[in-house]
Amino acid sequence: MSVVLESGNEYLLTVRNGDNFSTHRGNIRHSDIYGKDFGETLYTSQGMRAYILPPGIVENIFFMERKTQIVYPKDMGFILLMLDVKEGDSIIDVGLGSGSMCGALARFVGEKGKIYGYERREKFVEVASSNLETWGLRDRVDIRCKDIIDGFDIYNVDALFLDVPSPWEYIKVSWDALKGGGRLGIVSPTAGKVMQTLQELNTHSFIQVQVWENLFREFKPIPTSFRPFDRMIAHTTYMIFARKVCK
Amino acid sequence: MSVVLESGNEYLLTVRNGDNFSTHRGNIRHSDIYGKDFGETLYTSQGMRAYILPPGIVENIFFMERKTQIVYPKDMGFILLMLDVKEGDSIIDVGLGSGSMCGALARFVGEKGKIYGYERREKFVEVASSNLETWGLRDRVDIRCKDIIDGFDIYNVDALFLDVPSPWEYIKVSWDALKGGGRLGIVSPTAGKVMQTLQELNTHSFIQVQVWENLFREFKPIPTSFRPFDRMIAHTTYMIFARKVCK
Amino acid sequence: MSVVLESGNEYLLTVRNGDNFSTHRGNIRHSDIYGKDFGETLYTSQGMRAYILPPGIVENIFFMERKTQIVYPKDMGFILLMLDVKEGDSIIDVGLGSGSMCGALARFVGEKGKIYGYERREKFVEVASSNLETWGLRDRVDIRCKDIIDGFDIYNVDALFLDVPSPWEYIKVSWDALKGGGRLGIVSPTAGKVMQTLQELNTHSFIQVQVWENLFREFKPIPTSFRPFDRMIAHTTYMIFARKVCK
Amino acid sequence: MSVVLESGNEYLLTVRNGDNFSTHRGNIRHSDIYGKDFGETLYTSQGMRAYILPPGIVENIFFMERKTQIVYPKDMGFILLMLDVKEGDSIIDVGLGSGSMCGALARFVGEKGKIYGYERREKFVEVASSNLETWGLRDRVDIRCKDIIDGFDIYNVDALFLDVPSPWEYIKVSWDALKGGGRLGIVSPTAGKVMQTLQELNTHSFIQVQVWENLFREFKPIPTSFRPFDRMIAHTTYMIFARKVCK
Description:
Four copies of one chain form a homotetramer.
Chain A: E1 2-5, E2 10-12, E3 20-23, E4 26-29, H1 30-33, E5 41-43, E6 49-53, H2 57-63, H3 73-82, E7 90-94, H4 100-109, E8 114-118, H5 122-134, E9 141-144, E10 157-162, H6 171-177, E11 178-188, H7 191-202, E12 206-219, E13 231-233, E14 238-244
Parallel strand pairs in A: 7-8, 7-10, 8-9, 10-11
Antiparallel strand pairs in A: 1-2, 1-6, 3-4, 5-6, 11-14, 12-14
């Protein structure tokens, strides 16, 4: 669960009896937390008001053990829709990284869905696996530590998500793995890589190829000085989408 | 199912034996469609290649009977994450309109989830109801034709989404309906309305108030002339998010 | 001079005695215009209020005879600053097109400045020449109808602006023409062309290479419904800037 | 003049015989600079290549003594065009701050133009005055240390620029000071202030009211990894423009 101080700071904590939890504005005794409902008020030893709240998907992404560039919530929501993720889908996720996108996919395919997660770097297999465990989604994901340059061992998937340094090398094997009408999503940060990937998509049977990027602006939530914040994230990635058709 | 022509045009169709389906590039006989798998190739009477594909959530939004301003996919994905929508949630959706956001919520709460949809205009109750029926999600939504200015008859919901002309009038009743830590999402198109809503949020026990807007840019998916399209949607809505804490 | 109707429509007109000027909301007699000061009120034959105003640089751009893609005001202002245009400068402008950028440069170098305008397509030499004449700036511009692939016949210029389909082919000759510390500005619409141009800039002695693009959003100027307009121009061009140093 | 190191760092310097100029990558002897032309190569005591370049308007803005929020180049260029600034104009500039906008106006009205700069805070009169002196533009600006809430003592100006905390209080006096058809430009950072100003513009005889903001994105100028920089300036100000007509 997470502790949110009135100052706006947020902490993730695990409740263990007897411990104290320290914030930059004083301690909270774990024993004070027992019996509190979500949203109820606590006070730190310095008298600052605090709340206990359940962390959600966005908080989990930012709290998780991160060792890589992540897929940001601003991109993630759009990708989930464009891949048409739904209950019971089976989806391949290539390039697990810290597992945030994999967790989002696993969550939205539901109990009956299945994610096949490919990652060739062993240390990320561990990071992603541990994060998925934390979120209670580990059992929906079949993690495979291998490079998929030579193809997947799974076929007929509803969707496939590629987050790898050279996506153009994986277009053919992605086509092979998708079912007819299946949806491919790719993230890639530079214009050159997108161009190379588009070229490859054109030589296989993919239609409805689209490329998007988005700019999210946050505003000062103060009525009398409502305006965008001074600075913003300008670029995370380009997003490429396409659907498989038969040759 | 949908028919996508090689020209890029997409049509929604219902397969009924004996009929022909006409496109701007020739007819397709329904009998030609039987037995085809998704992604397989057909030809129109004018010889244009066509594909049969299952429509997904994004296609459904743009194909549906629309009588109102809709929540666009670019906003919808982010809202779903910020409201932390997940299997089994119960969520209140106020201002159904054509039902696209309601459908998205219904889809992502899964079979065990429940949406309570409020709409005071009878004609939109009908439109939304019919669209939800089409998407196979009608039974997850409890539609109530009433204004909720005096409060909901449901409490302890995980999240609440407000798409109404004067959201500031519904902040108190939204607080009442949410569970502790529950998430409130609001869309509103003008700066003045956002400012009025922020003012009202400040006088109730909501924390982590955020305001966002986003700009989505689509690119020409052509490797040799990769560039953003000339024109884009500049503004759909501001999005306000907040979490309920106890007084 | 221009006529602006209360409806917001704007017309460019030349006052000639005896004529009538027709708008979509009625006629204006030229004789009514004589003796009026700028900003004074007239009425059309249909009784709509109208004003006589002097057109400025922005109005001139949108009113001019246009046969090409133009440099938009949103880009033009930034380019003028980044090229450090000032009184007395001599500047080369390659690819005159309709002459809008040339006119802006000519205007801001003042009476003592000089623009050398290169354009290889005869018909654009005529269009640009005629537009510059209209704006009273023709005598500050030395127009040369030739391709400059083999070099300029002018050297030691303060700044050089390239608006051509393949800017990378002109980097060497641009370096030759600029004075030490001189500023190069390039517009190019696609990512691939920018990348090719950057590559070429790297092989010559240019420093402080920058690439920019901008998004301008216009808002509804109505206090009670202040919000961005629904749609906007998403992309006109990328802008590349660099300064010459000695080898 | 400015020194630009190969590392990209830029320094402003005044050449005085006998001194050394120190950079974070070694010293440069002033005597080494004498006799060098702009763009020629020097070396620091640590052997890093350096160039001597003339600073331009953009460099001057970022190098100047700054004590306030400035008008950024991205906004400045557009404002200069929208105010139709040209040789010989007389322009009122209200709220000098550090004088960057005043300097830009002074530069583009040329030798025959005149700027009337109003600033009620004495310390900014000094800062602006000193900066204008540095840029060689002090004699084109008539600086007046007064609040103009009760009106200007100058009339019939071509354009007027307002950079003050409460622009709506100055609309009437701005109308009085402008000539017919004259152009008003206003910068204001928050939505509420813009709305208040629009309301006031509506009650006076101003037409063609426009509100703009812009987003400038800088790109990595590296051909093989061409992409927007990760972060950007999201908001500096809204810009309001309008033209005076007679009542």
